[in-house]
């Protein structure tokens, strides 16, 4: 019978509040029971307020252990992240020479021009003409030569279409695209001046004779396009605007546009099926 009464008392704590229930139990069991309950509550409160004992250095060790769970390939030095300054409402990159520079509709290069532009020894669609777009930054140019040579050894014949583009040239391209197709379509296909990867000197459009040297969706189905998609990362290049990443990159699918990021980053991006934007969301700055 006593157990039944205790259950009822407990119910009153929930329904009527702690103070009313305590007064009711005092009348029922006497003053002694009330004091025992009070002692129990005080001991419980004391135990709850006590901090668990922590061995000096134990918390720090836990933090270090958590940091160590980040694999080395997802740890990236701070110098490879964009350093930006807002200029006229745009986030302008202050370290544009960084080979991992993230250039898109959010981050701009301003009027930056690379200082180490060279012409890679690869076939160009315009032959030996001395054009601006026949250049890349030196490291990217050497990697492009290696990639073209590797493809050729497999009877895959690639042709370079367009590399570096200046701010002014990109502006001309965008205006021409707007005149032909309207602004909405133009901005999905052509980057605004200052926001094109081509201006970084790290991107190259590539095609092939089998595709009539065109830069189009059909290139993805050629043996050259398939080889590039499967092997470019081995030479430090990534397919910059994949078909299933349009919502992330904000650019249409471009199976011809390859961007140099170096072998380490390219391998991680390829194996995880990431865009460059997703890569920077997943790497940890160190």
From TrEMBL:
Residues 29-71 are annotated as: Disordered. GO terms for molecular function: peptidase activity. Residues 32-41 have a biased composition (Basic and acidic residues). Residues 134-263 form the D-alanyl-D-alanine carboxypeptidase-like core domain. Pfam families: VanY (PF02557). Keywords: Signal. Residues 56-70 have a biased composition (Acidic residues). One of its GO terms (biological process) is proteolysis. It comes from the Bacteria. InterPro entries: DD-CPase-like, VanY-like_core_dom, VanY/YodJ_core_dom, Zn_M74/Hedgehog-like. Residues 1-21 form the signal peptide. This is Peptidase M15. It comes from Rossellomorea aquimaris. The lineage of its organism: Bacteria, Bacillati, Bacillota, Bacilli, Bacillales.
């Amino acid at each position: 019978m006593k157990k039944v009464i205790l259950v009822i008392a407990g119910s009153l704590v929930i329904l009527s509040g702690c103070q009313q229930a305590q007064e009711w139990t005092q009348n029922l069991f006497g003053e002694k029971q009330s004091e025992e309950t009070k002692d129990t509550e005080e001991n419980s409160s004391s135990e709850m307020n006590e901090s668990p004992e922590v061995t000096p250095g134990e918390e720090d060790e836990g933090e270090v252990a958590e940091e160590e769970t980040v694999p080395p390939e997802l740890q990236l030095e701070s110098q490879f992240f964009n350093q930006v300054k807002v200029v006229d409402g745009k986030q302008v990159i202050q370290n544009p020479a960084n080979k991992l520079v993230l250039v898109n509709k959010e981050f701009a290069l301003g009027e930056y021009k690379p200082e180490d532009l060279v012409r890679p020894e690869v076939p160009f669609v315009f032959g030996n003409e001395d054009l601006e777009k026949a250049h890349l930054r030196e490291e990217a140019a050497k990697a492009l030569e290696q990639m073209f040579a590797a493809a050729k050894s497999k009877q895959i014949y690639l042709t370079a279409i367009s590399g570096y583009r200046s701010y002014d040239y990109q502006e001309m391209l965008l205006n021409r695209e707007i005149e032909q197709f309207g602004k909405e379509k133009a901005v999905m296909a052509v980057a605004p001046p200052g926001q094109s990867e081509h201006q970084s000197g790290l991107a190259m459009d590539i095609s092939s004779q089998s595709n009539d040297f065109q830069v189009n969706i059909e290139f993805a189905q050629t043996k050259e396009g398939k080889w590039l998609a499967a092997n470019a990362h081995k030479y430090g290049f990534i397919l910059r605007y994949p078909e299933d990443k349009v919502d992330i990159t904000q650019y249409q699918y471009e199976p011809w546009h390859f961007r140099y990021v170096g072998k380490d980053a390219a391998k991680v991006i390829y194996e995880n099926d990431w865009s460059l934007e997703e890569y920077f969301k997943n790497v940890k700055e160190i």
